[in-house]
Amino acid sequence: MADEILEILKNARSVGVLTGAGISAESGIPTFRGKDGLWNKYDPVDLATLDAFRGNPLKVWQWYLWRMWLISKAKPNAGHLSLAEMENLFPAFLLITQNVDGLHRLAGSKNLVELHGNIFEGKCRDCGKVFEEEEFSELFALADRKRLEKMSEEEFKKVVLNGLKEEELPVCPICGSIVGPGVVWFGESLPEDALERAFAFAEKSDVFFSVGTSAVVQPAASIPLIAKRHGAVLVEVNPEETPLSPYCDFVFRASASEVLPGILSSLTE
Ligand code: NAD
Ligand code: APR
Ligand code: ZN
């Protein structure tokens, strides 16, 4: 099976990839729906929604800063790094991720769409202004990935969980509202330009990979099916079965950090 997909890849002109929390699991970031899933511990209704933020911005920011602190310790793994290298092997390549951890950026991926935003960015939900990672860390020093990475757990708990006050939260320089995390919340729509770019690329992919996603959350979950409907060879990389599995031409029932380096080395030997 692997030889067949390798032959197809060697002749492919455009390759698309959709990734989910599973590719970052081996970097130590819990997935959402797996056995140690993040949502199992917290009720996202309390935290990952606009209502929660309006009601208690400090509590929502403390939760997100905790996730950012955890994520700041994570490094890209072999799966992320392989995808960054694969980008240069094809005339057209697009990496579409649902992850907000920024690990694909750190791994060096350039042709990248972050469908659900990036946890180190900021978004003002009143005037719509999005603050890129660098700009946001100037507005909100605590949100700086490098600063969080250096913080020990006790320092983090002292400064953020016990010390942070609402008046220290980032204020939008345009409209004066409190700026929230730059991720897409339950019920919010995804950044239109990101979604359009992802759909358009899926329609012209020769090969499309679904890596480390349970393929249950819309609209991301429909992207691999759009590729398939437009003639792409569909490949899944996931240790578990998903609703997408029956539609796949090839399935690697293993982890991304094993499978992707293997594909990369076969393509470059
Ligand atoms: P959902 O099923 O309600 O739909 C997602 C949103 O995307 C909808 O509100 C809609 O506005 C938009 N949408 C759906 N289909 C679309 C299409 N075909 N074209 C354009 N827009 C479309 O999702 P949800 O469970 O309410 O969560 C909303 C989004 O936020 C999801 O994508 C989810 O993955 C994401 N999310 C992110 C985090 C995070 O921390 N990154 C946490 C929770 C949810
Ligand atoms: N390699 C590949 N896949 C893996 C690995 C691994 N090492 N470890 C776990 N997986 C798989 C699991 O089998 C599961 O199917 O990754 C998938 C993770 O699924 P979810 O936790 O549902 O994460 P995801 O699909 O990204 O969720 C979609 O929902 O809550 C929202 O915005 C959030 O972006 C997220 C979206
Ligand atoms: Zn604003």
Automatic annotation (TrEMBL):
Catalytic reaction(s) noted: N(6)-acetyl-L-lysyl-[protein] + NAD(+) + H2O = 2''-O-acetyl-ADP-D-ribose + nicotinamide + L-lysyl-[protein]; N(6)-succinyl-L-lysyl-[protein] + NAD(+) + H2O = 2''-O-succinyl-ADP-D-ribose + nicotinamide + L-lysyl-[protein]
Free-text remark on how the cofactor is bound: Binds 1 zinc ion per subunit.
Active-site annotation: H116 (proton acceptor)
All residue ranges annotated as the Deacetylase sirtuin-type domain in the record: 1-269
Main location: cytoplasm
Described purpose of this protein according to its UniProt entry: NAD-dependent lysine deacetylase and desuccinylase that specifically removes acetyl and succinyl groups on target proteins. Modulates the activities of several proteins which are inactive in their acylated form.
Record-given protein name: NAD-dependent protein deacylase
Organism: Desulfurobacterium pacificum
Species lineage: Bacteria, Pseudomonadati, Aquificota, Aquificia, Desulfurobacteriales
Underlying gene: cobB
